[in-house]
Design brief:
441 residues; alpha/beta; Rossmann fold; 2 domains; six-stranded mixed beta sheet
Length: 441
């Protein structure tokens, strides 16, 4: 495999610029389109342009035997800009750690620095496919990291599979990603079908008897909703209604009005951050008062409380990771250690999207070190063989590339604080149920 060498300082400067300029979903649920001409590197912000190739100093002077180049198309603008920022910052947190503290990736006894080339996919599946092809053919990356969202991951992974290059991702949870027979896609996060399991079990145990479900008609929310229907049946919850809405919806009042009249105990909303805001605001405006609300991709983000204030209280959300969880590893330490590291670096608390984005290249790093080579076939087998505990949780891939080792948690916002309430072994606070009317929150 061709390994290109670049100055460490140039790479670190690029990382600083990215930070100065500044985990699901879908622009498309289909396979990636036929390859189109990729945009020139100048289309991307300067901070994410691939640095010009230069000859690296000898290993005795540079301290590294060479450079392992990773590539990613990640939203900096567009509908996933908020989650894309978390994804980029997670990748950079890992890269800075591996180069500055860990001493580079150990490949057969030699240390390699890491460079990550990132471009703005603008939340568009066609652009994502073009950028991934550009990363492979022009930037000549050795491995790929995933974008944010299941739809963009579907697109990016199709190109990776076409070229036989491993792509590790932490922000595409839809099961449909792993149902295509691909052998080069690996995901560290818990699959979307399990997102609502622990929350619905906790609510059913607390006395809830009925549920309604609304979800965006794209890959990730569809997987979440299908899972919620399955878990509702398993836990004896009567399903009173299911509604879908289109991509980039701006008004959910019709759905919430219909659900209000059904008087369910639980509302489940499957979508993304902006959808979560729409659900809460419409429910309050229409005086729709379910005793439990479970909303994906929103409540676990500290920005959600900032956006809706006390209306966020009592709302539950699935979480891939929280800083209070008990996971730990030999690389980043405990979940709390990673939380502190990230907060100090970026001046804000890590979302679970940021944590899983740091865990994504960490899994690739361990596989490379276990393989002792950069040979794609050897690293791929090492990925399939991986079975490790990390600050983010267990990572153990099945034959499709899904992480089957990691459970999903649930948080509830209580007096403005995000607390893990399920499963019981991870909880730091008891579930508060039933929720009071909006005016009493």
């Amino acid at each position: 495999m061709k390994v290109r060498r670049f100055h460490l300082f140039a790479m670190l400067l690029a990382f600083v610029l990215v930070a100065a300029a500044c985990s699901d979903d879908e622009s498309s649920d289909t396979e990636a389109p036929a390859a189109t001409e990729a945009p020139a590197a100048t289309d991307a912000p300067a901070a994410t342009e691939a640095p010009a190739a230069t000859e690296a100093p000898p290993a005795t002077e540079a301290g590294f035997a060479g450079t392992i180049r990773l590539g990613a198309a990640v939203s900096e603008t567009g509908r996933f800009a908020r989650e894309g920022k978390d994804t980029r910052q997670g990748y950079i947190t890992w890269a800075d750690w591996v180069n500055e503290e860990y001493g580079g990736i150990n490949v057969g006894g030699e240390r390699y620095e890491v460079e990550i080339v990132m471009y703005d996919d603008e939340g568009d599946a066609d652009r994502t496919a073009s950028l991934v092809e550009q990363l492979i053919n022009e930037d000549q990356v050795d491995f790929l990291l995933g974008p944010y969202s299941s739809g963009l991951t579907m697109s990016a992974s199709a190109i990776a599979e076409q070229y036989g290059i491993i792509m590790v991702e932490g922000n595409g949870a839809s099961e449909s990603i792993f149902e295509r027979g691909f052998e080069n896609i690996f995901a560290v996060l818990t699959p979307a079908g399990n997102y609502t399991q622990s929350a619905l079990k906790a609510l059913a145990d607390a006395g809830a008897e009925s549920v309604v479900i609304a979800y965006e008609d794209t890959a990730f929310p569809t997987s979440v909703a299908e899972g919620a229907i399955r878990w509702a049946e398993e836990y004896g919850l009567e399903l009173l209604g299911v509604e879908t809405y289109p991509l980039e919806v701006t008004d959910v009042s019709a759905i919430m009005t219909k659900f209000r009249d059904l008087e369910p105990d639980i509302f489940v909303g499957g979508g993304h951050f902006n959808d979560a805001l729409l659900f809460v605001r419409a429910a309050k405006e229409l005086d729709f008062n379910p005793q439990g609300m479970v909303i994906t991709v929103g409540p676990s983000n500290p920005s959600f409380v900032e956006e809706v204030g006390s209306d966020a209280n009592f709302i539950l959300g699935p979480t891939q990771w929280e800083g209070t969880m008990s996971w730990s590893d030999e690389w980043f330490g405990t979940s709390g250690d990673f939380y502190d590291r990230y907060t100090e670096k970026w001046g804000e608390a890590p979302t679970y999207q940021a944590a899983e984005s740091a865990a994504t290249p960490l899994a690739l790093m361990v596989a490379i070190e276990n393989a002792g080579t950069l040979d794609m076939d050897a690293v791929r087998q090492a990925m399939f063989d991986l079975d490790i505990e990390t600050f983010y949780g267990p990572i153990n891939f099945d034959e499709t590339g899904k992480n089957v080792g990691k459970p999903m948690g649930s948080i509830q916002i209580q007096d403005g604080v995000i607390n893990v309430v399920a499963p019981s072994e991870a909880a730091v606070a008891p579930l508060e149920y039933p929720a009071p009317p909006w005016e009493d929150k």
